[in-house]
Amino acid sequence: xxxxxxxxxxxxxxxxxxxxxxxxxxxxxxxxxxxxxxxxxxxxxxxxxxxxxxxxxxxxxxxxxxxxxxxxxxxxxxxxxxxxxxxxxxxxxxxxxxxxxxxxxxxxxxxxxxxxxxxxxxxxxxxxxxxxxxxxxxxxxxxxxxxxxxxxxxxxxxxxxxxxxxxxxxxxxxxxxxxxxxxxxxxxxxxxxxxxxxxxxxxxxxxxxxxxxxxxxxxxxxxxxxxxxxxxxxxxxxxxxxxxxxxxxxxxxxxxxxxxxxxxxxxxxxxxxxxxxxxx
Length: 280
What we know:
The chain has 280 residues and is an alpha+beta fold. The protein is built from three helices and 15 strands. The chain has a 13-stranded antiparallel β-sheet with strand order 6-5-4-3-2-1-13-12-11-10-9-8-7, covered by helices on one side. Strands 14-15 form a two-stranded antiparallel sheet. The longest helix is centred in the N-terminal third of the chain and has 26 residues, at 2-27. It is elongated, with a radius of gyration of 24 Å. The relative contact order is 0.15. Residues 4-9 and 247-251 have low confidence and may be disordered.
């Protein structure tokens, strides 16, 4: 009888936890999203490095595509990350680097590395989907004075993750994510805190995210500006072809300049080997 009660209690906790996460996901559903992000990376000595990106997403959660484009500082400007999220497995990711003038697929084994010197890993940039994890309700615990559910989240077998588990706090008043602690085995390695909540077009949204890498003792603060939901987007902007567009535009410009030279009269001079030397 004791065993039966324990099993029943465990199943009840799992069902309750899943229903809470499902409702939290439902309340953040949107057709698209766009914002401008300011990232401040603080190392263990308190030094600050600023980065800026523009984030655009089409779809929501496990059925979405996103492009993250750095706009500052100059050494990372033009770097793009394309993320294709899936409902039942890890995302596909490609990065375009202007210096290399080509895209690179981010392999699963590289998803745990830091994303361009921030405390976010490549995996942390994925959208979490309710179907990628198994859940267990651990109880209730206030976050910043707000009553919240405390839920254990463990990746399913199909979900490839660097993290063994995550502890997630969801606010009871708005069903918003308040805090996530990511574990590798029994150790917390990253802690993500959500704050500065506001209702944007009917969706409660944290406009400030702080990722703390406990192993490095460094933090990255992401502030969201000009945030909009359900903005018009085009599916062709979320493709590898779109990532290559800066290179294609550069090639088109070079070709146009060359053709402009040939469109005008010019004299042909010859080199010492009698091969033609032209203005082009």
